Amino acid sequence: MDLRSDISSINALFDIRAETLAAALLGQQDQEVDIEQIVIAPQGSAHRRSSHEVESLHKKRYEQEAVLFMKVHRKGFFDTLPAELFLELEAPYENAIERTKALTQQTKEARKFFLPFEQALYLPRIEAERLEQEWTEQFPAFIEEIWGLPDFADCLNSRQRFLLCYLLPEAYRIAGHLELTGLCFEAIMQQPIDLQFIPPLEYSIPVNQDSEAMLQLGIDATLGSSFKDDIPALEVNIKGITDFNLPDYMEGGKQLRLLQELLYSYFLPLDIPVVTVITVTHDSWSFQLGEGYLGYNIHLQSRQAATIQNETR
């Protein structure tokens, strides 16, 4: 069942605000009413907790145009103002039945009297809701531009873009939490990923070819040929990579670029050196022993694993 039939029958399982329903009806290509032809009629909030906000929809045709009446379980002017202004509560009635009929008729006439004034409030709300729905259609692209996702359009599929639009606003809460970061990486990359701290990395010192240059101790003048960092490094181990998708994780590959240039920059602290380890699994041989017995058989398989290490920063 499409959205239009859901809205028209108002028998959908979800609740919906009157302004949202009206804006959705106006957004249909074959809509037969304008915004001025929609009348929202409040019926009070007595039944709101046990029913949907929109009670019913019915179209009434007049000589020149048709009007769509929308009865809603919502307070109106009649429910806000004192009842003594509109109802003859102390008037003499023959019996309780006559009193109930009279008060019901007075309530109906009072609600009808306030309808034009209430529409002056509802029509701007409907227009605002319709404008918000138009903006919402372009909102995902706007979010992607904020986070720079168009620069990785060739690396992302629709599922990854959706997850990133949801996770990136929460990156400030995820960064620094190793378990949450690993879960995010696995959800986006769709590969098992282990994150663990390893001892500080050792860096080789480049030889200064210019002997006449001014050397600064601790920067380009250091004893020995290497030095160790002061803080532990973070090892990101991507497991389960096969020969088929290995090119995406090699130097210049799409998934490796997505991991190192996008995910690392948002979810990992800037001052932590990162070592990316790609664990490649190869299927070398496999065979089955004999015939199956009672639905079971023996299947021998040899698997070899190789690792590719890459220091990111």
Structure, described:
It contains eight helices and nine strands. The chain has 313 residues and is α/β, with parallel strands linked by helices. It folds into two domains: 143 residues, no CATH class; 160 residues, no CATH class. It has a four-stranded mixed sheet with strand order 4-7-8-9. Strands 1-3-2 form a three-stranded mixed sheet. Helix 2 crosses helix 4 and helix 5 packs antiparallel against helix 7. The N terminus is likely disordered.
Keywords, separated by commas or semicolons:
4-stranded mixed β-sheet, 9 strands, disordered N terminus, 2 domains, alpha/beta
Q: What Rg is obtained from the alpha carbons, in whole angstroms? A: 34 Å
User: How do the strands of the widest beta sheet line up side by side?
Assistant: 4-7-8-9
Tell me how many strands there are: 9
Tell me the strand percentage band. 15-25%
Quick one: biggest sheet? Answer: 4 strands, mixed
Instruction: Detail the poorly predicted runs.
Output: 1-13, 292-304
Category by helix and strand content = alpha/beta
Number of helices: 8
Shape: elongated
